[in-house]
Amino acid sequence: MLQKIGFQPGINKQISETGAEGQWTDCDNVRFRYGIPEKMGGWKQLGTLNENELTGAGRGLHHFINSLSRKYAIIGTNRILYAFSGGVFYDIHPIKNTTTLTSAFSTTNGSPIVTITFPSAHNINPQDIILLSDFTSITDSNFGASDFNDKKFMVTSAPTNTTLTITMPSNESGSGATTSGGIKVQHYFPVGPAVQAEGFGWGLGSWGGEAAGAISTTLNGALGDNAFGTGGSGTSITLTSTTNFPSSGTNFIQVGTEEISYTGISGNDLTGITRAVRGTSRAAHSNGASVKNSSDYVAWGEAASGDLVLEPGMWSLDNFGDKAICLIHDSAVFSWDSSLSNATETRATIITGAPTASRHMVVSTPDRHLVFFGTETTIGSPGTQDDMFIRFSDQEDINTYTPTATNTAGTQRLADGSQIMGAIRGRDAIYVWTDTALFTQRFVGQPFTFAFAQVGTNCGLAGQNACVEVDGAAYWMSENGFFRYAGKLESLPCLVEDFVYDNINLESGNQMVSAGLNNLFGEVMWFYPTTGSSVVNRMVCYNYFDSSPQRPVWTVGTLARTMWEDSAVFGSPHATEYTAGNDSSFDVVGNTEGRTIYYQHETGTDQVQGGATTAILANISSGDFDITAQRTSQGQQTGIATFRGDGEFIMKIRRFIPDFISQTGNTQVTLQLRDFPNDSQASSALGPFTVTSSTKKVDTRARARAVALKVENTAASQSWKLGTFRLDIQPDGRR
Question: Fold match between 2-40+618-731 and 95-188?
């Protein structure tokens, strides 16, 4: 008899494959549309062929159309800020410092290292980006003007506070330069690391915890965000007390998240300091900030663990009319005017009067306020940054933040949580998440400007980018589940929840989680790193078109995207993919932090990257199903398929009849056979059988108690949308 094989939409990984009769249990690069599984659309790399890779990891993405009808994508990596328009990437990263040098280059025969010497402290760290220009000459070197002029370099090392090194693509073949002409060095604003580190010890050199009895004191004087000591000058730091601090050899202190080494003590001064050691970055510290002796910190696991999180370099991106607003996480905010006739030749510049240290930023519309989250209580003083503090500008004025009786600037501090994790603009409110709760921020006008209300508890946001809003509903990922808010808080039922949360790396990757909306297909996706991975390598997707309270539709897969932006501006979604390692990108010499590929999605059937086309491998697998027995009474058939055999009968599978709603190229079909739940399917698979658009039936001649279906494609230019398969089966005994 012929038996139809019908399956409910969505993936169910909460039960066993035997228990998932009539359900799908796994997939990759597959979506459900109108309840039917199909291969998802392809993607192609954007940018000109020779200039299509971005330095670092993509950590911010925003699309907008300006008043001149020009379409822009603003892409922020952990190293460089780009504007994408007309198929071309433009470097618009803000410049922190510019220095003109003479006789600054030195090289050594047989080495690719170039040493650059500054007359004073340069305040540049390893892996920072510098741009060289206005080069004149260099003697006794095979390197010339074309090797340096208008080129970006990733700094290899900073041996002293007045020297740094860069690495050339080839070795010096000359005798070695000792003198050179002039050169202009532009230092890019640092953003942060490519990945997130959790606790003492991972990615932080020899940090490992805090030994018992570690000495602590406070700063006697402020430390700036530079290479100097107390008061912005010199090479010493003044403490309230240096009693019991080690005084011989090289020792270390911790101020905030920054490690500082010193070589001596004079009174209450630590002398011979070097800022930002052991893989940390310089930061500003206020007078009275806590100081701990970290010389006795030991290897990870040998001392008490800590809860320090070194968050990755991230951006908050939005637009205020024609101006792109770009905030570096825990740092300054910049604007870039897209309406200028030479916009792509200009750089983002710091917004005067705005906070200088904030976790997140959103432009409130239509009232047009610039809102900062986790920001300074005193503007211009990074040491006063409060992770729960909100500050917003005057209406239509991104340079005014001090509240007065005649403006709408103001502040608010949230109460539930330890830090604001993120915020997004909704239909009639801004949604603000802490690590424990959800708040709404609604514009109400003067005198209060905004009204704040807590609308959810125990539903904090996993990471800054783990939320989206669509059609008046907010969707987000917490550290304990998926949620939806559309006037009331709802926990989203999830049939892949254990699969995701048992394998996600939230301890060192919560800020790596990124949500994306694909409104063309009603999909909300979350991209995340799995256990043991510091980079994004999987996704989970919720289909809000096809879902119902009784049957939520979820899929899983290996699509790895660090940022995603919907189709509203460019007509199709765009996304970034990060590849770690020492891969060179087109625009930075000596890049050691990997590269980002920028893709257009839902185009074609394949992946197109660097001019090469490769197949997108898509597959879906079902749970087990067994023979459907027919009820008989006194030798007469009285019912049709009225109950299932539940594996009591062996079935003989003579053939299957494929059915595809649409199919391009060939598709592979495998019947996974087994007699008992703990049998391995792999050892008893039948197929794969190649199915073409003209295949009417496939003969099988197989026997099993249970069978599962797997459909996949394995080559380029293949796509498929599944119909209703039928099996020609008959009972074949009980054993």
Answer: no
